[in-house]
Amino acid sequence: MKIPVLKIDQFQESESLNDLYINSFSNHIELNKKLIDKPHSHNFYLCVLFTEGFGKHEIDFNSYQVNPGKVFFLKPGQTHSWQFDTKPEGFIFFHSQEFYEITFLDHTLHSFPFYYSNQNPPFLELSPLKMDVLKPKFEEVFAEYQQQNLLRELKIINLINSIYIDLARAYTSNVNLEKLVSPSYSMILEKLEHLIHQYFYKEKLPKFYSDQLNITTKHLNRVVKKTLNKTTSQLISERIILESKRLIIHSGNNLAAIADTLQFSDYAYFSRFFKSKTGCTPMDFRKKYTS
């Protein structure tokens, strides 16, 4: 079974705008339960604020608690699923990259720390004070979406931008801004993550990526160390392991076929690599996860 990749136009709602969807969370779940009752990914950027309810949100095999005041962010391609213990409530919106960046030509979505890198946590815990500021903004953008007022789309995108700015400030509230990495390092990391996503099946060594970026392998490692405190090899391995887990759990293929898909020379090599990074074999991981 292949992981479904959901598109914005698959979701049911009323007054639609191109490349944008906004809803209350309870209504979103009710209208689209057949789409989202199993693990899936998206081709868009997603933001959700919870005001009520408890449960679990699994993103790329990491589990996070759902509770009032929690905000989640998802980038295209991330696999996730929900499991709720009590009825959830809040607000959700998602949009394409173009919907945002065509309006803000000089400011990309990756400028926001929660969309900047897959290495950054995909959630934020709002304090009661921050909730008092942000909840009304989510309510306002939802209300605007439901109406047909003059300059509706412009109002909505400016509200979303204001929400993102407030969320980014809360997200980085404990970060010393003077120690943030330089824009040039951020740009290299962004390009590196894109290249790894594009080529990791075949290219598993840092030199390929440094060549693509026209920098030395030593400088690339310096950038990754400075920005993420990791090595380039770690980033490549983490992407391979993530895809391995997705295929082991969701594809239904036998493990030898998965090793072949990931372009390992044989299953034994793949199994050793997987165990060295996760502490268990692919078979053990499948048994543990499916049980």
From TrEMBL:
| TM region positions | none
Q: Which residues form the HTH araC/xylS-type domain?
A: 190-288
Gene3D superfamilies, per the entry: Homeodomain-like, Jelly Rolls
- SMART domains, alphabetically? HTH_ARAC
Q: Keywords in UniProt for this one?
A: DNA-binding, Transcription, Transcription regulation
Q: Does the keyword Transcription regulation apply?
A: yes
Hydrolase as UniProt keyword: no
Molecular function GO labels: DNA-binding transcription factor activity; sequence-specific DNA binding
- This chain belongs to the protein called Helix-turn-helix transcriptional regulator
Naturally occurring in which organism (per UniProt): Polaribacter marinus
**Highest lineage ranks of the organism?**
Bacteria, Pseudomonadati, Bacteroidota, Flavobacteriia, Flavobacteriales
